[in-house]
Amino acid sequence: MRYNLGEFEEIVLLVVAAQHESAYGLSVTQAIEEELGRSVTMSSVHTALYRMEEKGLVKSKLGEVTKARGGRPKRIFVITAAGKKALIEAKDARTHLWSLIPNFVFDTKAYG
Length: 112
Known about the structure:
Elements: H1 7-18, H2 25-36, H3 42-55, E1 58-65, E2 73-79, H4 81-99, H5 108-111
Antiparallel strand pairs: 1-2
């Protein structure tokens, strides 16, 4: 089965993988903003996480209850085997496309 991740889904899934078993909506949102300098809303991150959970690319569980969250637990997301496969396919596709670009295209000496 092939997975076609959208750019935002790919970014969210990469962050979930990077935050291994500690990813939740706010942490993913903050990581995208800090690491990529990209402004995102938490609702867009949650939408992507729940959509990917439906597709089987991530799974979630409730974390510990904390006073800081008013007694509510965090929903923790982890990447699944299918999610890992989807990221590898996306990386391979991008690497292949990059390999098709002739070297002179990015040669700043020739084209300024």
